[in-house]
Amino acid sequence: MLFTFQGGPREGSLSLPPSKSLVHRKIILAALAPSGGEVYLSEISGDIKETINLIKSLGGKVTITDTSTGFHIKISPIQKNI
């Protein structure tokens, strides 16, 4: 499909899928941070689910809340063994 726009100001929004490489890093870093962290996503891919499962298997707690605009992922830190 081809669209042609005339010059002038535009307004609107576009929903793009999250950058998976950045999301993986955010989830991992949140799990390593002393106070954990949160990530908001419009969708959760299979790869992201596997990273979440990895964090859980290492002792981190991950809570996913499905909201009207996407997913709120709360990551508690992985406890250190001293």
Question: Key features?
Answer:
single chain; 82 residues; alpha+beta; 3-stranded antiparallel beta sheet; 2 helices; 3 strands; 30% helix; elongated
Commentary on this structure:
This protein is α+β, with helices and mostly antiparallel strands and 82 residues long. It contains 2 helices and 3 strands; from the N terminus they run αβαββ. The protein has a 3-stranded antiparallel sheet, covered by helices on one side. α1 packs parallel to α2. The longest helix has 13 residues, at 20-32. The mean pLDDT is 86.
- Seen as an oligomer or otherwise, the chain set is single chain
Query: Tally the helices: what do you get?
Result: 2
Radius of gyration, Cα only, in angstroms? 17 Å
How much β-strand is present in the residues?
Answer: 15-25%
What structural class do you assign from the helix and strand content? alpha+beta
Relative helix content: 25-40%
Low-confidence stretches: none
Distance between the termini: 59 Å
Mean pLDDT: 86
- How many strands? 3
Strand order of the largest sheet: 1-3-2
Report on the biggest sheet: 3 strands, antiparallel
Q: What is the ordering of alpha helices and beta strands?
A: HEHEE
